[in-house]
Amino acid sequence: MALATDVMLLLLDPQKGKPIVAHTSVLYGLGGAQLLELAMSDSIRISGPGEAVRKGRVVPTAIAHPDPLVSGALATLRKGRPTNPPNAVMKLSHGLGDRIFAELRRDFRIREERDRVLGVFPRRRWYPTDRSNRAALRSQLAAVLIDGREPDQRESALIAILSSINAVPNLFPEADKKVIRQRAKGIAAGEWAAKAVKDAVAAAQAATATVIAAAAAAAAS
Fold first, then answer.
1. What domain count does the chain have?
2. pLDDT tens digit string along 59-94?
3. Which residues, other chains included, contact 115 with Cβ-Cβ below 8 Å and sequence gap of 6+?
4. Spatial CA neighbour of 155 closest among 165, 145, 167, 169
């Protein structure tokens, strides 16, 4: 299952049927997860000085990825000229939530309910099912973030994305917010990625936080 799919499942509140963070955080968190997974699989790199491509650009290094959702992200980045990480996150975010929801519904990992607020405004809710694996994912991350177990690479990647959109305290309301936030940031900044892809991983994390901050600033202005 793609990293972005796991992120979406973790962000869904199983009681309320909606994400535990704002829409923009979900949107760009998913795009960041796609970019991060491409970095971890050596499917992209970040250009350096002295190259034909401008420094700091996301350069695809593969043609396809085993996961169809991630392969679609790679195909998106292969179109046009290499761009910087924040723009890459925004490109990958476009329509991604709908594609993930379609995949989860098809596999019976979520159920969708539709109604109308005040009998007028349409509303959709998504509830993880027993097949979603959300509870197991949350327990794994709780063992890392609360109990102190050392994370594996995938757990570190999930925590890095959740930290970049400030979702960790909402996912674990039973924990001290300051402590768990710092624990997540420490893991995100750790040496869990292979050295060869560390720049790309760091760029994906930073880009996610950058586009969310920019969206929040635009909404406030």
1. 1
2. 999 999 999 999 999 999 999 899 999 999 999 999
3. 122, 123, 125
4. 145
**pLDDT reported for residue 128:** 96
Query: 98: how many CB neighbours lie within 10 A of its CB?
Result: 9
List the one residue out of 61, 56, 76, 62 whose CA is nearest residue 4: 76
**Domain CATH number, residue 201:** 1.10.3630.10
Distance CA 145, CA 164 (A): 15
Q: Give yes or no for a contact between 29 and 161, defined as CB atoms under 8 angstroms apart.
A: yes
- CA-based angle 42:163:219, to the nearest 5? 105
62 and 53 Cβ atoms separated by less than 8 Å = no
| pLDDT single digits (tens) 97-133 | 999 999 999 999 999 999 888 878 888 999 999 999 9
Q: Is 158 exposed, middle or buried (0-12, 13-18, 19+ CB in 10 A)?
A: buried
Structural domain span for residue 60:
3-220
